[in-house]
Specification:
3 helices
């Protein structure tokens, strides 16, 4: 019973309270906290990256759609393609062939 009131016992209790309790908190609680913090940050950054990738893909598909539709809106290019695809291509006059070649070689590459 004298041991419970001795200075050595009080110093051991003081040591346990002052050093071992904070050390136990740092050993167990802090890794869990930082793991959760890192997981949340990783999740947030991954969602942001996927959102940006989806937006970039959507923009690229819209640009590709516009690029494929644009030549069809030009009458000179369409007439040149129709003349080239028709069986009467060999029988067309030189002026029509010149206009068709000019549309295919100069107008079409601009799109």
């Amino acid at each position: 019973m004298r041991f419970a009131f001795s200075l050595r016992f009080r110093l051991m209790i003081f040591y346990l309270i002052i050093f071992l309790v904070p050390a136990a908190i740092m050993i167990f609680a802090m890794p869990y906290y930082f793991q959760q913090l890192l997981a949340n940050e990783t999740r947030t950054l991954t969602e942001g990256t996927l959102t940006c990738i989806a937006r970039n893909i959507e923009t690229s598909l819209n640009d590709l759609n516009r690029l494929t539709i644009t030549p069809h809106l030009n009458n000179d290019v369409m007439q040149a393609m129709q003349l080239k695809a028709s069986p009467n291509d060999k029988q067309a006059d030189d002026y029509s062939k010149l206009l068709a070649d000019r549309a295919r070689k100069t107008t079409l590459p601009r799109f």
